[in-house]
Specification:
With 358 residues, the chain is mainly α. The protein is globular, with a radius of gyration of 19 Å. It starts with a helix and ends with a helix. It folds into two domains: 188 residues, Glycosyltransferase (Alpha/alpha barrel), CATH 1.50.10; 133 residues, Alpha/alpha barrel (Glycosyltransferase), CATH 1.50.10. Strands 2-3-4 form a three-stranded antiparallel beta sheet. A two-stranded antiparallel sheet has the order 1-7.
């Protein structure tokens, strides 16, 4: 089956996830968690980083132009729910409820706001992104971590490289050295966690446990994108070396596991499809940087495998087009749900593969 059909099914799923009133993208589809309406509430974090995906796809084909309008309405919703101090809400959004702001989630929304700014040249999106970046930096600890407004206030995970990346994007546009320095401080702290085997400690949601391929990929991507923005070979090599271990695992075993411990011991009874899609993107970007075909060859094979997991028709439990969190459906990552972010990264992977084809 051609990639175009997989792309269009995933886009249909994302489009259906968008609330027709607020234009926030609903976090996931699940007949088990939501047996009546099947969709969760809108999720500001992933709404934010779905925006660049829809804007990118709108340039690919005239029939996709409607996604541009949708993306801008999503960005408008993010501005609407931003707090006066610049914070942006975490978790699933509930109107008329005190939704606590989140450092990580807000940083992901920065990406969407900046994409909307570049598309429209409307300063309101840049101002909202800048306001949130300053709010994030105001809560940074001296060592580069965050404790307040974190996912787990007792643990600082390494996937916060994906906070540093949006901070660098804003800091460079606004020429704000304070924001740039804050991002560097975070990257330095996390870079100190790389072990001799190239694994980056604390890449998961909990200390002294396994990390899902999803958060591992977050960690790698944050270093990879930041290395380009800073011209840092150090951060590039950290990302490349960590990613190369998963390339070798895939080449040796023909698959990736859903999670890994810091010695690369796998939790191999399930697949994390979100993380696999993210790893395809990382490998394609490394192919672009190195021109080494090993990255492209593995990415194409992995993407072939992911395509086979995409439901192409509705079934008793699954909505067509949306990647499940895990394979099998009851796997440990976002079990019994089809998260919008899995399809977002899947779309990104297909778009990037098309661009990178040798």
């Amino acid at each position: 089956m051609k990639r175009r059909e997989h792309l269009e099914k995933a886009l249909d799923f994302i489009e259906e996830s968008i609330d027709p009133v607020t234009f926030g993208s609903r976090a996931f589809y699940s007949k088990i968690y939501y047996p009546i309406n099947n969709w969760s509430g809108s999720y500001p974090e992933t709404t934010g980083y779905i925006i660049p995906t829809l804007l990118e796809v709108s340039k690919k084909n005239k029939s996709y132009l409607r996604y541009q309008n949708l993306a801008i309405k999503m960005a408008d919703w993010i501005i609407e729910i931003q707090y006066a101090d610049g914070g942006l809400p975490g978790l699933i959004y509930k109107k008329h409820t005190n939704n606590e702001p989140s450092v990580f989630n807000g940083a992901q929304m920065i990406k969407g706001l900046l994409a909307a700014y570049k598309q429209t040249n409307d300063n309101k999106y840049l101002e909202a992104a800048y306001k949130n970046a300053k709010w994030i930096v105001s809560y940074q600890e001296n060592n580069g971590s965050w404790i307040k407004y974190a996912y787990n206030n007792e643990f600082f995970p390494s996937y916060y490289t994906r906070v540093a990346w949006p901070l660098l994007l804003v800091g460079k546009i606004q020429n704000d050295q304070n924001i740039i320095n804050a991002a560097k401080k975070t990257l330095e702290l996390i870079s100190s966690k790389q072990l001799e085997n190239s694994f980056i400690q604390d890449s998961g949601f909990k200390p002294n446990s396994y990390a899902f391929l999803h958060t591992i990929s977050y960690t790698i991507r944050g270093f990879l994108e930041s290395s380009k923005l800073l011209g840092s070979e150090k951060y590039f090599l950290i990302a490349r070396d960590f990613a190369e271990h998963f390339l070798n695992i895939f080449n040796n075993y023909g698959k990736l596991s859903g999670a890994y411990y810091e010695d690369f011991k796998p939790v191999n009874w399930f697949r994390c499809l979100t993380g696999e899609s993210q790893m395809v993107i990382i490998w394609l970007k490394l192919f672009n940087e190195t021109n080494d075909l090993k990255w492209y060859d593995a990415s194409t094979k992995l993407l072939d495998s992911i395509c086979l997991t995409q439901p192409m028709n509705d079934s008793f439990l699954l909505k067509k087009g949306g990647l499940p969190g895990s394979k099998p459906y009851y796997g440990r990552y976002i079990s019994f749900r089809q998260p919008n972010w899995a399809s977002k990264f899947f779309i990104d992977a297909i778009l990037l593969e098309d661009k990178m084809r040798p």
